[in-house]
Amino acid sequence: MRTSDHTRPSPNRVEWEAEALTDTDTYEYRAKCLQGTEPGTANLDADSTGDRIREQRRLARLTQKQLADRLPYSYSLLNQVECGARPATVDFVAAVAHALRIDVTALTGQPYVAELQQDRLAELVRPIREALDLYDLGDDPHLTTRATGRLMGAADQLCADVRATHLRKAARALPGVIAELTTTAYRTPGRDVWQALASTYRTAHDISVKLGYYDLSAVALDRMDWAAQRASDPCLGAVRQYMRALVYFREGEYVIGQRLIRSGHSLLDPADQGREALAVAGQLHLGASVIAARAANGTAVDTHLGEAETYAKRTGDASDAYWLSFGPTNVALHRMSAAVEMRHYDDAVQQARHIKLPASTATSRRAHFLIDRARSEMEIGRTEAALKSIAEARHAAPEQTRYHPGARETVRGLVHLSRRTSDSLGHLAAWIGL
User: Fold this and answer.
1) Cβ pair 238, 264 in contact under 8 A
2) N or C: which end of the chain has fewer CB within 10 A?
3) Residue 293 confidence (pLDDT) above 70
4) Reported pTM
């Protein structure tokens, strides 16, 4: 999304080289961290997000103080993250990526290729990439397709599999369904077929994001727009803008994210008061609420959550509407997520205690809730509870949790905070790739 742009003025060379030796305030402490002799830093790996932040900062020829001046975080926190004494939270990483004008994956290390190869997931990415690339070749004369009704069912099943966090199953089936629907759309074009094809591109986006292939997710959203326009479905177009907004949210581009949310609203017909249109409008407000929270705009957070709540009262549980999981439960989950993004961790933990997830809650949403809860519990010093929450997320959604950068950094934080790594924490850290 971004290109490295280091045209800003560089500090004096002598000053920068001196900073390279002293920029952690305690050079000796960094050495202890790397040796694992400082309390709370045992098993510190040498390829952490903090290490990548330090490397990218130095490539930009910035001192810690200069970078900290560009962040809505303290110099002390930057110092501790680079040293490895504090985990790099997703909001902090996004802010650093924005300040350095680089992709957030340059700091998170995504995709986590070693783990993806171990899980036999990496080999499933190339066929998806090829399926997205071959969208404009038209009818494949060598392809025998299933009946349209069965293909629409297959597209819905892919959405269901992703929400059940069966990522391998969905990734394996996806390219074939895309190919069949593409050929069907060219042979016998119709609104339902184009909608189903747009849905498969949306699934490609979901899988790509969850596995850390953000570049591929952007291509998938372009293809989703291509199919949604041919379906003449404004709701699909609005859902695509919602997803684009979250892409920029992850990159720390909050102003662009809010513009995309407004664009999504503009695509909806105000006269359409159907359940699906209301659910999409409500979900756009939920997306706007977490973007506003990350941007520290509490007033906007309350406004968007209030609007979403109003829509949810009208729709009830609309989880099946464009697979957005919209409804009263999702409003409550986003209210908690907003508290996490604003770093109101006590409030987030308090909210989590009162959230009772229905049995029908999508596994992907349940795991996200547990990861948010774990981060908040860790931040307020409830390390045992945080470990339990992450373990629950792993049990519920192992494929999603293992590749979630927030889960990874929370586990890293728990390792740093523990004076003696328990067997359960050690096994969890090894499993997640630390």
Assistant:
1) yes
2) N
3) yes
4) 0.86
